[in-house]
Amino acid sequence: MRATLLITAKDLRQRLRDRSAFLVAFVAPLALAFAMGVTISGFSAGGATYQIGVVNLDRGQAATAFFSTAEQAPVQLNTEKNAASARKRVKDGKLDAAIVLPRGLSATFLGGPAVQIDVIGDRNNQVGALVARALSDSYASYARTIQLAARALGNATSSLQIAQKGSSLRSPVAVSDTSTTRKNLDPKTYYAAAMAVFFLFFAVQFGISSLLDERRDGTLARMLAAPIPRRAIVGAKALTSVVIGLTSMVVLALTTHYALGAHWGNPLGIGVLIVCAVLAATGVTAFVTTLAKTQEQANAWLSMVSIILGMLGGSFFPVAQAGGVVSVLSKMTPHAWFLSGLQDLSSGEPLSSIVEPSIVLLAIAAACGALALVRVRKLIEP
Amino acid sequence: MNREQNSSVLHCEGLRKRFGEIEAVRGVSFEIAPGESYGLLGPNGAGKTTTISIVAGLLEADAGEVTVAGNRLTTKSVAAKAAIGFVPQDLAIYPDLTARENLSFFVKLYGLRGKANRARVKEVLEIIGLSERADDQAKKYSGGMKRRLNIGIGLLHSPKLLILDEPTVGVDPQSRNAILESVEQLSGQGMAVLYTTHYMEEAERLCDRVGIIDRGELKAEGTREELVALLGEHDKVHLTGSGHLEAAAKACAEIDAVEAASVGQESIELLVEGASAILPEILTTASSAGVTVHSVEMEEPNLEAVFLHLTGRALRD
Ligand SMILES: Nc1ncnc2c1ncn2[C@@H]1O[C@H](COP(=O)(O)OP(=O)(O)OP(=O)(O)O)[C@@H](O)[C@H]1O
Ligand SMILES: [Mg+2]
User: What span, in angstroms and rounded, lies between the C-alpha atoms of B317 and A346?
Assistant: First the structure.
């Protein structure tokens, strides 16, 4: 154990001295989390809320349903007297866009003639218009679903009742903002966490794969000649990975929390998830490293594996919703499990909700770690 | 165990190691007494590094036994390894750490901590002449300085047996001399030394006893005098010239009194019984084989001649 700590201390000293570990473990993920968090929140709930005017010419139950479906969107609805005044306020920049709910909207639900929802936007505020457009579209398709449902039930008059009940459900086509649904992290937190776990897989490489450096530089032979057990050397490399990984994750969580306003959730739960993710990353990295013959090969393979896992695991865009093969593959990555654990936590689920992701992460760590241990023997020969 | 084995610092018996098709070490046995310096002399690929790697506990032997200071050594043994200082053939230092940090780290692996650690590191820095640059990163050192640091790490824990694998390869003459002097000094202080080289001069200068190794086998061992005595009445003739050296060497080897002939750089090395009588015949044979002879020298028999005698080949070709 003493030898393990000695080697780990030496490794950390070396890593502190070369800037690349610092860049990969802290600077790059922070910079990207900031960049992505800021860009994304420009479009959604994380940052600005959109001011959308609503001209309610319908004044019926359908309009009420509209207001309640819109609750889930990152918008603030302001009632406007009429289309003209709404148009003026949009032009003046007081509103991002406006929506006109036409007279007879409620009647459509009762089988009346089709009506049209108008969106008033401004050329200088394309995003505002898009948001209003998305709201309307989503409402329109919602209305269509209600009508279909009512027709299927063979009772047109009841469709408004369905609408009223339905308004508490999610619309079939949500406004295209993932942060609105309950199980999702807000974008800032999502990207902070996604970048942290993505770069974690690079950061831990600075421990394990230095075994190949030491082999190349002959210092491994020196350690093998010293009166220490071989497992101390392997253990130290894994420990270095874990220490760098944990430090990186904790620093990123704290920094993004205080500087970006990311909401990581229950600290205990986060702590457990972070430890499990770091162990999984160390296991995967150790396994890939033992497959390689040279440091160059290891670096190339590790980068490839880290990027592929990161993309599949949702480090760049949430893929869990994508469905199909991608979402199945996604479920095989540590990234996805870590992020889903975080999502559960931040949506207020009990601490027990991280048991499953934690177990999966530990299983990945154990499986890869065991394979690595079997293969590492050939690496620690001079 | 016999008494000799008990008193020796290193005892190897029947070491064998195979790498796939290549049998790198084929039954090597030798031993080193306390304070003795022992040289393994052999050409490239002879199996020196492989032998030393087994002796230092880096490599598992396929067969054979190593005992260091009374303790059986395997790749896993701790006690036996603690008695060994190891200097690898290639530089093995951390370039991004300073000399002091390099030394301090490795000596900690041997259990020296705190004050004792700092004191010993300081001492070794003096010995290797790096005190003034001790806190510079090793990558900023000259080649010779790196070499000295490389050796210094092996000395740190004052081992009973210091193993050096060709420490002078690729070293400038000045540093080379400094290295040889420090090895002489250390063995003078009672440290046993196992030294590999393919330079006959180094083996002759440093080592109390020399083992001649070729193709994984120890061909002979003993003091310089004992080895040279193996030559009997043989003399070594060194002939320089140009032309068909190979053909000439072959033709000379046909002469009865010539035991071995080997081609070097613009030269032929011959091992001859009663050289002075046979010299004229050698010269006529060489020139009729198409060689213009520039010079002929009869040399004092040395370890190179012994190697030629034992293997039929020159130590350096
Ligand atoms: N790890 C290895 N894998 C395969 N073959 C090896 C390995 N190490 C050594 N060999 C082979 O074993 C033989 C002996 O090599 P070794 O390094 O012991 O020679 P050496 O006497 O130290 O030579 P040199 O003077 O060039 O250092 C060589 O043929 C070499 O190619
Ligand atoms: Mg060698």
Answer: 74
Give the distance from residue A203's alpha carbon to the nearest chain B alpha carbon, in angstroms: 19
Give residue-wise pLDDT tens across range A7-56. 999 999 998 888 777 887 778 777 777 766 555 444 444 445 778 888 98
Helices and strands (DSSP H and E) totals, chain B: 12, 14
The total number of structural domains that make up chain B: 3
pLDDT 10s digits, B139-160: 999 888 898 899 999 988 889 9
| B253-303 pLDDT tens trace | 888 888 888 888 888 988 888 777 888 888 889 888 888 999 888 877 788
CB contact under 8 A, A226 and B92: no
> Ligand 1: does its nearest atom lie under 6 Å from the Cβ of B47?
yes
Is the CB of B50 inside a 6 Å radius of any atom of ligand 1? yes
Average model confidence (pLDDT) across chain B: 88
Q: For position A42, what pLDDT does the model report?
A: 44
Beta strands in chain B (DSSP E): 10-19, 22-32, 37-41, 63-68, 71-73, 84-87, 161-165, 192-197, 209-214, 217-222, 234-243, 258-264, 267-273, 291-299
pLDDT value of residue B313: 79
| A75-80: strand order across its sheet | A75-80, A50-56, A97-101, A118-120
| Residue B272 forms part of a structural domain | yes
Q: Report yes or no on B305 lying in a domain.
A: no
Kindly give the distance from the C-alpha atom of residue B49 to the centroid of ligand 1, in angstroms, as a whole number: 7
Of A230, A225, A381, A224, the C-alpha closest to B161 is A225
Strongest mean pLDDT among A18-27, A43-52, A321-330, A353-362: A353-362
Domain around B264: 233-300
Same domain for B222 and B251: no
Residue B57, chain A, CB below 8 Å: the answer is: yes
pLDDT score for B25: 95
Claim to verify: residue B77 and residue B180 sit in the same structural domain: yes
Q: B247 with B292, same domain?
A: yes
Name all domains of chain A by residue range, CATH numbers in brackets: 2-42+186-376 (no CATH), 48-178 (3.40.190.10)
pLDDT digits (tens, 9 = 90+) for B87-104: 998 889 999 999 999 999
Q: Are B40 and B92 in contact (CB under 8 A)?
A: no
**Same structural domain, B46 and B135:** no
Q: Which residue's CA is the nearest one to ligand 1's atom 18?
A: B47
Torsion, CA B130, CA B134, CA B140, CA B146, rounded to 10: 40
The residue count for chain A: 382
Are B166 and B145 in the same domain? no
User: Is B18 at the interface with chain A, CB within 8 A?
Assistant: no
Query: Is residue B120 in a domain?
Result: yes
Domain with B237 in it: what CATH number?
3.30.70.100
* Beta bridge pairs of residue A101: A56
Query: Last residue of some domain: B227, B247, B272?
Result: B227
Q: Does A3 touch chain B (CB under 8 A)?
A: yes
B247 and B149 in one domain?
Answer: no
Tell me the pLDDT tens digit for each residue of A179-221: 323 345 676 788 788 888 988 998 999 888 889 889 888 999 9
What CA–CA distance (Å, rounded) separates B157 from B109?
10
Is B307 among the domain residues?
Answer: no
Instruction: Centre a 10 Å sphere on the Cβ of residue B132 and count the other Cβ atoms it contains.
Output: 8
Distance CA A23, CA A315 (A): 18
Q: How far does Cα A340 stand from its chain's mean position?
A: 8
Cα–Cα distance measured from residue A362 to residue B213, given in angstroms and rounded to the nearest whole number = 52
**How high is the pLDDT of residue A43?**
44
- The first and second tokens of residue A109, run together, are 């639900």
pLDDT (0 to 100) of residue B15: 95
Nearest-angstrom CA–CA distance, B203 and A354:
67
